[in-house]
Each structure stands twice: as C-alpha cells, then as structure tokens.
Amino acid sequence: MYILALNATGRPKGTTTVLVEQALAGAASRGARTEMVLLAEHDIRFCTGCLTCYQNLEARIAPCSQDDDVRGLLEKVAQADGIVLASPLHSGFVTGLMTTFLERATWTLCRPTGTLMEFRGCPVPRLTDKARASVSIVNAGGVPPHLRQFCDTATPWLREMALMLFNGEFVGDMYAAAVFDQPLSEEEATRTFLLRRLRQEQMEEAHALGVKLAQAVQRGVRPYDPSMLLGGE
Description:
By secondary structure, this protein is of the alpha/beta class. The protein has a single domain, classed as 3-Layer(aba) Sandwich (Rossmann fold). It has helices at residues 15-28, 52-55, 70-79, 96-108, 148-151, 154-166, 186-189, 192-195, 200-219, and strands at residues 2-7, 33-38, 82-88, 110-116, 119-125, 132-139, 168-176.
C-alpha cells in the first residue's frame, strides 16, 4: 500500500507540512509506505490550453506539450493507492500551485468520453487499473472553525477533482482552523498568521485522517462513477 501526499504549500516547514506529516504517520501506522511531494520543489508550468492531452483518447497518461516535472508526478499518482491533497487556504481557496497542478492533470488523467445526466464529453478517469482513496487537508491561517463556510471553498473542489482524477472515493477531509486560547486583541488580530500554532487536537485529527485513508485502501474503494459528483452513493 502506497500513500502519496501532494502538498501545495509555499512554506515547506510550515503548519501544512506538519499536518501532512501527521497524516502520513497515521497511514504508516497501518502498514502504508508513504511519500510527501512538495509541489513547490518541482517545475510545474501553467497549462497553455493547447489541447494535446484532450485530443489523445488512448494513452493511460495523456501527453502534454509542456516538458516539465508534471509527467513524473502523475506517474507517482498512478502508482499510489491513496492520495492526500494538502494546501494552505489563500483567499478561501487552495494555492495557485495546487490549482495549476490539478489543471494540468485534468485531461492528462481523464478522457472526454463520459456522460453526466444528458451532457456528453465529460471527463472520466484514464487510471482504471484500480480505485484510489483520497483525502484533503486545508489549512486556514486565521479563520476559526465556525466560519469555515466563508473561508473554505476549496474542499468541495478538491473532492470533485479527486473523484475523477484518481478513479475512486474521497473518504475524508480536514479543515485546520485557527484556534486561540483566549480572544485576540485588536493588535494581535492583525498578526493572526504569525501567532497561530497547531493544537494537539489538530495533530491528532490529521493522524486519524491518515489512518482512515489507509483503512479505506485496505477495505477497498469503489471506482469513480459520475453520480458521485451529484452526491450519489
């Protein structure tokens, strides 16, 4: 069992990375071989919209006109049994790095041959050799748990992308909110990102998420079905 984490932070030693490490430790406690990829350490270029990938309906991983590190990262995805998508929240969404990577993955890991309701040409997975489980970790700099709905537009998007790209089930998510022991002063509130520290409960939640991911892989997950995007079971 191989669990791969794709970490889109720009701060490789920051709190997002700590949470990912905890999640991977949880997966490892259930026998998984784990790896974390820091996307910032790789050459990931913007999609140019050339449609090279879109037009190839045969390849397991479609070709791309960009000669960078994305192909190698997609090969790791193909090998994985479970995947962690992790990112800080910037303006309530994932980093541009995560967006760029998943945009590049859309038609390289999917074919435009599916049907959703009556609409044809929808993406369906190319990686049909096995179903993969996935989870997400999003890390809020200063927004508390009760305001998640105003900060986290990322998790639903990551879920939809994971279902299609990885051909499997999305089995859990974590919103790592800012929690302080006492109300912040007006001055402190302007420095929330700098004052925030991870709490033990958050470390334990990330560890438990990794355990859940590994257990889902061991139990077996269903391959992608378009009804999953509509909340179907």
